[in-house]
Structure formats: C-alpha cells, structure tokens
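Sharing a chain and its predicted structure for anyone who wants a worked example. Both blocks are below, sequence first, tokens second.
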Amino acid sequence: MTAPADVAPELLDRLRPICLGLPEAYEEPAWVGVRWRIRRRTFAHVLAVGSDHEVAGWGAATTAEPACVLTLRAPVAEVHALVAGGPPFYRPGWGDDVLGMVLDDRTDWDEVGELLTESYCLLAPRRLAGQVARVAHRPT
C-alpha cells in the first residue's frame, strides 16, 4: 500500500487549495494516497502508482514509470472526449463518469482546477454546488 507521503508534496500543495477552497470539502487519507470529499462522497483522489504500487484499475494510466494519478468525476460525454484525446487522460476502469489523469511537469493546472470544481459540483448537494462559480470546461 502507498501512503500520503508517496504523493509528491508539491502536487499536494497544488491540489489542496483547489479542493479545500470548495464549500465543506475536506481531505483525508484514502486506502492509498489522499482523497478529498464532500460529505461522504469522494470527488478527487490522488495517489502514486508504479511497478511497486500495483493497484487494480490504475494500470490504465499507460505508464510503466512511477507516476501520480488523479481520479475524479466528470460528465460521461466529457470523459469520452478527454480520453479520446489521449494522455494525460485515461479511464480507470470503473464507473462511466470516472476520469483519470496523470499529473506531471506538463500538467495544465487551470484545467485541473476546472475538472476538480466540476467533479465537486457533480457530487455536492445542490445548495453547496450553487455556491461555486464554475468555468465551462470544453474538452479539446
């Protein structure tokens, strides 16, 4: 199993302000990595994967090298469009609305912010989602 320490601190430093800036969102250790939740629903999960971190479903990230991956929720059509565009996006293999993304030095952090916000809004109660200003994300 992996631990929160396996996720590069600089990645957590980029993700935390986005996730914890959403109404009533909180962070907790997951069975592997770190996850952010609204109530009891996980809207984002980041973890390290690689040859010594074989976790079912994460292998779809198509990387033989150790990497950090982020999973979140997105509308099904958006998942299909982003995955069709190729890396850094992939389908983890469960749930039609689950999107995976490899985080690396080429990560577009504005896009990550939009995707995390959208994931939160899909799972949050309407009252809380209504408090969030969303930027329309359009897959390329």
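Comments welcome. Confidence is low (pLDDT under 50) at residues 136-140.
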